[in-house]
Structure formats: C-alpha cells, structure tokens
Amino acid sequence: MPILGFGSGDGVSVLGGLGEHKCPRCGENANFSVKAAYRYYHFCYLLSFLAKRDFFVQCDNCLLAKPVEQSAILAHFPSDRIPFIRKKGWLLVLISAAILISHAVIRQEINQRRLAALAENPRANDIYLANLARVEGSGFDPGSIDVARMGGSAWGAMKVLKIQGDRLVLATTLSAYSEKKRLERSLGLTAKFDLDNPIVLTQREIAELLSSGVIYDIQRRAPPRARGASGGAGAGRRPAPGRPAGV
Ligand SMILES: [Zn+2]
Fold first, then answer.
1. Comparing C-alpha atoms, which of 119, 115, 157, 110 is closest to residue 135?
2. How many Å apart are CA 27 and CA 22, to the nearest integer?
3. Distance in Å, CA 65 to ligand 1 centroid
4. Residue 63 C-alpha to ligand 1 middle, in angstroms?
5. At 35, is the secondary structure helix, strand, or coil?
6. What's the 10 CA to ligand 1 centre distance in angstroms?
7. For a pLDDT cut of 90, what percent of the chain falls above it?
8. N or C terminus of the chain: which is more exposed, having fewer CB within 10 Å?
9. What is the C-alpha separation between 81 and 17, in angstroms, rounded?
C-alpha cells in the first residue's frame, strides 16, 4: 500500500459478544461475537472515509460467520466501533483546513487594520510598497514596454517626503520589479528614490490605493535617536564638515 497518495484498507471491528451458543458447524458451546467488516478509502491515511460496512455474527471458536442485517444489530449495539479516523478522517482534514483559513483571515484582518492605522497617521519617511503601474505619475506607465515586460505590474515603493494637510508628497523608487519579493529585497540595499520628481497624493487616494491592493504594505522605521545635530548619520561616522548628513 502506498504511503503517500490514495489507497484503501479493510478492517474488522468487534461490536460486542452474544454469549455462549452451540455452534452449528463446530458443535461446541462457543462464544459468538457481533462484528463489522469495513472498507475505507484514504488519502495519505488521513483524509479517509468509509466505503462499505457489513455486519456479521461469528463463532469465536471456528470463525463461522453469518451476515446479519444492520437494523437488527444497531438496535442492540449502537456503536459500530469503527475508528473515527477511518470513518470521518476527512472531517479532521476539513477542521484543520477551517482552522488554518480562519487564522489566515484573522492575520489578514490584523494586517489590514495595521495598514489603515499607518495610512491614517502618515509620517515623513513612511514607505508605501505598491504596484507603481497603477499609481498615476509614478513614471511606470502601464502602457510602457518596461511594464509590459514585467507582466503588467511594477512593484516599487513610495517614500513620504512631507505632509501638507491631507496631501502627501512622495518620491517613488527609480526601479520597480515584477515580483514583490524582489522589491522587498531591494529596499534595504539598492533602492533609490526619485527625489526630483515627487508626486502628490491625498490621504483619501492613499486609502483607496490601500483598499484596492495597489499599496500592499507600509513600512515605518523607528525614528533614529536624535544625537545632537547629526542624527541619522552612520554609526561611528561623522559627516564631513560643510556637507549635509544624508538626504
Ligand atoms: Zn463454531
């Protein structure tokens, strides 16, 4: 029987004893038992269900078996004693799937709330991860060859430069990627923002981009600890005199 994949199996369960009777075959005064022979199908032994169940009475001495009607048996022996995993294994899989799905839904819900809260109270240097092909003015025109080559999506980032009332001034990344993962890897390393061509979006527009999934994540880094006037400079490095620290 294969360990992985579909398979079937047979089993016998003992529902109970009927006491001693004279057996017509072996002639002994032998114990008789009520049993169920069953067949089940399974996937990986877990997702299993019962295909067949036949009841019979058997002499414990010579194993003579005589079929009996289910209705006659279950009135006296309400449980067929077939293991739950064989009868309703599919139910376990269903329950596990339901638990996994509800966890995923809850996680998603928590994440959506986190994003909504960040979008409602934007801060300078917040980074919005988005499909720039669907953000007007981002420089990634959905009709362009570059975006078409990326499969229609241009995953890039927008950094909040400043906030003017309910309007955000944002710089978009100069590069975009066909996959979110590649964008996320680039953010800590090579991502460069186009500071010369900022775009302006209202908070309402940001909220709409968020709910439509165009913006799929918001990163907010803890503000660097202010250390005199040089906050944000690299560890152990002093900015050269006369040059502004970072951008
Ligand atoms: Zn017998």
1. 157
2. 6
3. 9
4. 6
5. strand
6. 24
7. 66
8. C
9. 13
For residue 160, give the nearest of 211, 111, 215, 212 by alpha carbon. 215
Yes or no: say if 66 and 54 are a contact pair by the CB < 8 Å rule: no
CA 241 – ligand 1 centroid, Å: 105
**162: β partners:** 169
Radius of gyration of the chain (CA): 35
What are the structure tokens assigned to 239, written together?
A: 């900015």
**Sign of the torsion angle spanned by Cα atoms 127, 131, 136, 139:** positive
Q: Is 166 helix (H, G, I), strand (E, B) or coil?
A: coil
Which tens digits make up the pLDDT trace of 92-122? 888 999 999 999 999 999 999 999 999 999 9
The closest alpha carbon to 92, from 17, 42, 28, belongs to 42
Pull the structure tokens for residue 39.
Answer: 């067949």
DSSP 8-state symbol, 114: H
Give me ligand 1 centre to Cα 68, in Å: 17
Beta strand residue intervals within 29-126, DSSP E: 29-43, 47-59, 65-68
> Rounded CA gap, 166 and 150, in Å?
32
CA distance 120 to 211: 13
Structure tokens at 5: 């994949």
pTM, full prediction: 0.61
Q: Which residue has the higher pLDDT, 229 or 29?
A: 29
